[in-house]
Amino acid sequence: MESVAIIPARGGSQRIPGKNIRAFNGLPMIAWSIRAALDSGCFDRVLVSTDSEEIAQVAREFGAETPFVRPVALSDAHTGTGSVMAHAVRWLQDAGISLQWVCCLYATAPFLQPEDLQAGLQALKEEPNRYYAFAVTSFAFPIQRALRRFPDGGTEPFFPEYVPCRSQDLEPAWHDAGQFYWARPEAYLESIPLFSEHAIALPLPRHRVLDIDTPEDWEHAELLHQAWRKSLQREVASP
């Protein structure tokens, strides 16, 4: 029974061309996810699911496997991660590989740490009735105090009933960190819902969670990543 990491990485990024293999603080972006997976010691194999030979070549250079080419039908901008993962799981099973654990890692997760992956696997092992374990982080401001802005500049609250409440009295809200998704293989094959009682949500600090969808996001992420890595180096160096 094997534990396998699968990194979806299609070649058609539009907002940031070449996003998955563009240089990010000295390494191709996807290399950070591959490195975290290999360093975690959690996996028998680290695979990349891609339709791009260029991405596949970079992935192999950093230690991942690319044993299949992702079908064209699963390589457009509208195909969800669940379908890509189900295809990879079926391919592995058809190849005679017995799977115990499968982990989807996003290719654009440079803040991912090996310890995060280890914690996710351990959490799932301890909860035999759950199908997933994935990372979340908290919103920086209470979502109950969100405002709707109109074209003329006017505003109104989305939730008027919470306007009189103090922010510290409102329930914290969380969102998907977009980094890793541990799962039992049947979770992807049977399309079991992720955002449900079937999953364990593992908190990450907000400074290690960033969506990288625009050039501005990329620049912000690089600066934050540099500062974060320097802080880690100082921690290691301190007596």
Task: Present the secondary structure layout.
Blueprint: E1 2-8, E2 23-24, E3 27-28, H1 29-40, E4 45-49, H2 53-61, H3 81-94, E5 99-105, H4 114-125, E6 132-138, E7 147-149, E8 155-157, E9 174-183, H5 185-189, E10 199-203, H6 215-237
Helix pairs in contact: 1-4
H and E string: EEEHEHHEHEEEEHEH
Question: What strand order characterises the main sheet?
Answer: 4-1-5-9-6-10
- Cα-atom Rg, whole angstroms? 19 Å
CATH topology: Spore Coat Polysaccharide Biosynthesis Protein SpsA, Chain A
Please count the helical segments.
Answer: 6
Q: What's the short version?
A:
With 239 residues, this protein is α/β, with parallel strands linked by helices. It has helices at residues 29-40, 53-61, 81-94, 114-125, 185-189, 215-237; strands at 2-8, 23-24, 27-28, 45-49, 99-105, 132-138, 147-149, 155-157, 174-183, 199-203.
Architecture overview:
This protein is α/β, with parallel strands linked by helices and 239 residues long. The chain has a single domain (2-137, 174-209), classed as Spore Coat Polysaccharide Biosynthesis Protein SpsA, Chain A (Alpha-Beta Complex). Helix content is 31%, strand content 21%. It is built from 6 helices and 10 strands. It has helices spanning 29-40, 53-61, 81-94, 114-125, 185-189, 215-237; strands spanning 2-8, 23-24, 27-28, 45-49, 99-105, 132-138, 147-149, 155-157, 174-183, 199-203. The strands form 3 sheets. A 6-stranded mixed β-sheet has the order 4-1-5-9-6-10, sandwiched between helices. It has a two-stranded antiparallel ribbon with strand order 2-3. β7 (147-149) and β8 (155-157) form a beta hairpin. α1 crosses α4 (114-125). It is globular and about 60 Å long. 32% of the residues are buried.
